[in-house]
Amino acid sequence: MDDSEEEIKQNSQAIKVKRTIKISVWVKCVKFSPDGKQFCVSTTEGVLIYSNDHTEIFLPLDIDEDITLEKLISQLKKQNYMWSLLMALKLNNAKVIHKTIQLIPEAQIPIIA
Q: Where are the chain's structural domains?
């Protein structure tokens, strides 16, 4: 083996460095619905909602679309309080979340056992 072959062999060994990337998602909290058919998971990646009940239509809010303060206000005016709260949470502004919660009438918040 000549010097050039030896050099190529050393370079190819240097290129074959094993790289490992650990992607971690931490689960902070898991809560189940009273009937046990749905559950919600709070993770470092966000809040995930799952349903095992196929008789009901499960319609999660696509929170990656254009969510703006104007759309949130529009939903509040239409009395779509659930959508308003979800939008406020996505905007991730403490004042907006607090104000949205304050604007939801008490009668619209069901008691959860």
A: 1-56, 61-113
